[in-house]
Amino acid sequence: MMLYRKRLSCHLVPLCFCSLLWLSASCYKPVIIVHGLFDSSADFVQLLGYINQTHPGTNVTVIDLFDRSESLKPMWMQVQGFQDAISPIMQNAANGVHLICYSQGGLVCRGVLSIMSNHNVDTFISLSSPQMGQYGDTEYIKLFPHYVKKNLFRFCYTQLGQTVSVCNYWKDPHHRDLYLNISNFLPLLNVESTNPNASEWKKNFLRIKKLILIGGPDDGVITPWQSSHFGFYDENETVIDMTGQEAYLKDTFGLKTLAARGDIVTYSVSGVEHTKWHDNETVFKNCIAKWLT
Q: Which of 23, 112, 255, 278 has the greatest count of CB atoms below 10 A from its CB?
């Protein structure tokens, strides 16, 4: 009889252990990662490793679309492409998914969340993304060798300029009228210009459970860096934080509602350069890991 019990326990221990592992993995929602400007899925190996270490068994997908120079294509084209790629993953995730969207990818994800009425995103993690726009002399402005930030509006706010992704969210505080009248992406997302779909898009965006905003003063690319927290310059290039922005005060697309729900969390992290956010283990442990359950 004792021998039988010993044999039984030897079989039960690995069985129970495997069951626990399976239950643990089944508790983790799938994670979808959307890359930024000039990136590709290959740049997120480190982040994948962090997720596998802390949340073993998680189904993680880094969407392999609009890589490298293709990421310069118009933002609405990218939004549609990423929506098509993300939709089947959502359909197979009854309990929802998490989005980690880096840099330009954070705006792509906002576009997807706005136009997609049946999305099931639980947590939207915006990792150093120019959510309220971009205006600064950074290395990426070298894309336009004959321009600096003060005159880039001359290219961006043209029909040709609007075929380049960066120009779709270039927000010159000294030429706001041109931005509102010509730019065909960010003003629509923020409902800064007339958007007949504003109510529907707001309802869609508010389907998310949590909005996590991560950025920092040493980013070196996102300008102002507070744009990663929905802050931006006024006409004097003084940074006005999220709660002072018209989009927040008028709750044009849901920021104020999310804040009232207690569903916006911001992280300001010093000492992280723009290209290092998704590789930084401290950022992952302190700002991302807890939200991937």
A: 112
CA dihedral 76, 82, 88, 89 (to 10 degrees): -140
Backbone angles phi, psi at 223, to 5 degrees: -135, 125
Q: Are strands 239-240 and 232-233 parallel, antiparallel or unpaired?
A: antiparallel
CA atoms within 13 A on the CB side of 125: 23
Tokens read off for 178: 């041109």
**Separation CA 125–CA 292 (nearest Å):** 10
| Element holding 247 (H helix, E strand) | helix 246-249
Per-residue pLDDT tens listing for the chain (293 residues): 333 233 323 343 343 333 444 444 568 999 999 999 999 999 999 999 999 999 999 999 999 999 999 999 999 999 999 999 999 999 999 999 999 999 999 999 999 999 999 999 999 999 999 999 999 988 776 778 778 899 999 999 999 999 999 999 999 999 999 999 999 999 999 999 999 999 999 999 999 999 999 999 999 999 999 999 999 999 999 999 999 999 999 999 999 999 999 999 999 999 999 999 999 999 999 999 999 99
Beta partners for 126? 101, 213
Q: Assess contact for 166 and 134: CB atoms under 8 A.
A: yes
Report the Cα 80 to chain-centroid distance in Å. Answer: 15
* DSSP code per residue over 209-260: SEEEEEE-TT-SSSSSGGGGGT-EE-TTS-EE-GGGSHHHHTTSSSHHHHHH
pTM: 0.91
Specify whether the CB–CB gap between 28 and 57 falls below 8 A: yes
Q: Catalytic residue numbers?
A: 103, 219, 274
First to last CA, the chain: 43
